[in-house]
Amino acid sequence: MNYTLSAQARTTKRAKDERIANRVPAVMYGHGIPSTSFSIGRSEFNKLLQLAGYSSLIDLSLGTNSPVKVLIKEVQVDPLSMAPAHVDFYQVRMDEELTAHVPLKFTGESRAVKEDGGTLVKSLDTIEVRCLPGNLPHEIEISLTTLATFDDAVTVAHLALPAGVVAVTDGTLTIATVARPFTEEELKKMESSEAADVTTIKTEGEEKKAAGEAKKAEETAAEEAAKK
After folding, report:
1. With the CA atoms of 9, 13, 19 and 23 taken in that order, what torsion angle do they form, in degrees rounded to the nearest 10?
2. What is the DSSP-derived secondary structure letter of residue 81?
């Protein structure tokens, strides 16, 4: 899919003025490329971020200049509104390899989950890859059907990567497994442990209360003795 974004030169240095105009301050930089500041439409960028994410090439047009290929590198958000406050774009060279984090898309269903009552455990939701910009995948699919038993696991090394794409993330890292369901005995132990924790907390609270009352009584007795 082809993603596009239009930008315009900033008319003010104050980020507040850009936000009032419903625009987001941004900067673009790259290897051997001088940084350029500009602003982008807030609503336009929000839609683009949902579709393209951080792993899709974008044709960015600044004013009347010809579009350049960029990736969304970083998005700073307002801590209160969580709206984009500043965006960093990385301008790529199509003949130069890059590294990027690509999201994982889980498909299918594990037999160990469906038939044996296990719980799917996902340890990673993205991996880092290296490739030419033209080979960068938007996402990488993983079939959960290979998780047939509780002993099975999907690791980074199991991924079927597109041609020209190499995983930078350690191949031995686990992406997904299926945890066994708790037995009745384990559930009873957990219930007993929780009950014991509650009792312990209650006992500690009662001890603190008693100690406080005893201390108060001692202070009262000392005050009365002093009066005599």
Report:
1. 10
2. T
The sign of the CA dihedral 112, 145, 129, 57 is negative
Extract the runs of DSSP E, i.e. beta strands, from the chain.
Answer: 3-8, 23-30, 33-41, 58-62, 68-77, 84-91, 98-107, 119-122, 126-131, 140-143, 153-155, 166-167, 174-179
User: Cα–Cα distances in Å, from 179 out to 123, 151, 174?
Assistant: 12, 9, 13
Give pLDDT tens digits for 6-51.
999 877 677 777 777 889 999 999 988 889 999 999 999 999 999 9
Tell which residue, 101, 102, 119, has the closest CA to residue 110.
119
pTM of the model: 0.74
What does each C-alpha distance from 18 to 10, 11, 63, 72, 77 come to in angstroms? Answer: 8, 9, 16, 19, 14
Q: What is the β-pairing status of strands 126-131 and 68-77? A: unpaired
Place 205 in a pLDDT band, splitting at 50, 70 and 90.
low
